[in-house]
């Protein structure tokens, strides 16, 4: 009886905790098409201003890749009212910090300030949109920055090219086939007008969502938003192409050589549905069962018990149009890559033929509950989530109820998703090998 009472009490406390995490927000459109989302939280004197643009690597010309990521750097160069090199100085001297990031689907800029500098954050982002300076000196400077970034993160990093290589194999028609950092050759050969055209096309208010989250007064903030963003002219409507991939047929196998590694790696890749599809959520759970932490199936079997792998992983990378599911590992000792594949396939087959236990299912639910709570634990995180759910999921309310989707997923669905998407006959196999393994 005591155990029952304790369990019920725990559930009630959890429910109260989840309810307390509910994010309130208001959203509306400016006349120029910019979407605005406001989340007021006056519990701490901090405010985040952020703008997400619906432009990523997938929107690029195949002969001009890397532009979206390049603009993430270029638009910190300066504006008509911010001298070159002064952007970061302005932010830090006013007690703030800022950053930006790019994916294949969107580009995101944000500042975090003491709340008395909210207006400064709004002005900075309006300057980026209304008065950017795109000139040759800025382009040349940032080309060097991006070149160095690629060297550090891709070309000279161990296993740094695996995502590029997998993209080429998984996608033959969709722009997801190239990486976000793109081609340095394309950037080097692009004209100044090419960069201006990209800015004029995608950096327009009707292709953006502005989020203000934190300590502010709503009416005063709306007035400032109108003052700084309202006069910005609406851009032309953006024509977006649709790409439909043919199903993967058979095992597509490729070898890639890397002079930065000494231990080979194996990667199995599967094409999966868009992030808005229910199956994408289910595949998140499949990957958690297989490799989330030392108690996961692949890690426990191959790293702990059989000691056949130094490392194993599985993750579901869901995106706006398609997703990719990757399973990989580094062999230990005399274990061959084919042995590792066979061991991985055994665990995949268990997922496809057996229901996970009730105990494992509950552990899974607890993990996703914790992730949900943590994602809404700061105004900075909330700002990013609000922008993402609005722009890429077309449903801002997911910030509060996405967890309900995970809660509703059954053990039967987990099994069915593994059967449907993790098929041997529809996957790519990438052998990532040391340069010394090249055959003469």
Notes on the structure:
It is a single chain. Helix 10 packs across helix 16, helix 12 packs across helix 16 and helix 13 runs antiparallel to helix 15. This protein folds into two domains: 206 residues, 2-Layer Sandwich (Cytochrome Bc1 Complex, Chain A, domain 1), CATH 3.30.830.10; 186 residues, Cytochrome Bc1 Complex, Chain A, domain 1. The longest helix is centred in the first third of the chain and has 20 residues. The N terminus is likely disordered. The radius of gyration is 24 Å and the shape is globular. Strand 9 and strand 10 form a beta hairpin. It is built from 16 helices and eleven strands. The protein has a six-stranded mixed β-sheet with strand order 1-2-6-3-5-4, with helices on both faces. A five-stranded mixed β-sheet has the order 7-11-8-10-9, with helices on both faces. 45% of the residues lie in helices and 19% in strands. The protein has 440 residues and is α+β, with helices and mostly antiparallel strands.
